[in-house]
Specification:
This protein is an alpha+beta fold and 161 residues long. Helix content is 43%, strand content 16%. Helix 1 (7-23) packs antiparallel against helix 2 (30-40), helix 2 crosses helix 3 and helix 3 (48-57) packs across helix 4 (64-77).
Length: 161
């Protein structure tokens, strides 16, 4: 599952981030805006390290602390969602009104694949009700091997996509 990252949607998100910074009396520094551009402009689930690497590849740079602080501000703004897949680091994805979805995580290359299945949504409700439980939300991450890794076609560029 990929989310639309049209130029218009990304531009709107970037403007919303500028407004958030303004409303919270935070400076809209070139570094913050470059970090926002990286995270808001992709459908991938990026780690802070991958954000810093992407910044460098674009000819920009920011210290590790700046990357983490800016990611925190992006999460507080509601424009970015923080994901913890138990890998020892967090990943970040643009929220962009994304409906609830689940994740498949390849334990070899780190590829994250999103999926949504209405049967699973119904099943979680049924399971909760069967145990006299009022379901509010759930999270599912399936760990295993993606097709490329299973077939031995590991690609170093697949990490985090």
């Amino acid at each position: 599952m990929t989310h639309p990252s049209t130029d218009a949607a990304v531009a709107a998100d970037k403007e919303a981030f500028r407004a958030f910074l303004r409303d919270h009396n935070l400076p809209a520094t070139a570094q913050r805006l470059a970090i926002a551009d990286v995270v808001l402009g992709t459908d991938r689930h990026l780690s802070a390290e991958e954000v810093a690497t992407e910044l460098r590849s674009r000819g920009a740079s920011a210290g590790t602390a700046t990357v983490y602080r800016t990611l925190d501000v992006l999460v507080r703004s509601g424009l970015v969602v923080e994901r913890d897949f138990g890998e020892g680091f967090k990943r970040y994805e643009a929220s962009r009104g994304v409906p609830h979805h689940e994740h498949l995580l390849c334990t070899v290359c780190g590829r994250v694949t999103e999926f949504r299945d209405e049967r699973l949504e119904r099943m979680t409700t049924l399971l909760a009700e069967a145990h006299d439980f009022s379901r509010q939300r759930h999270r599912l991450v399936i760990y295993g091997l993606c097709g490329d890794c299973r077939r031995g076609r590991l690609s170093g560029t697949a990490r985090g996509s």
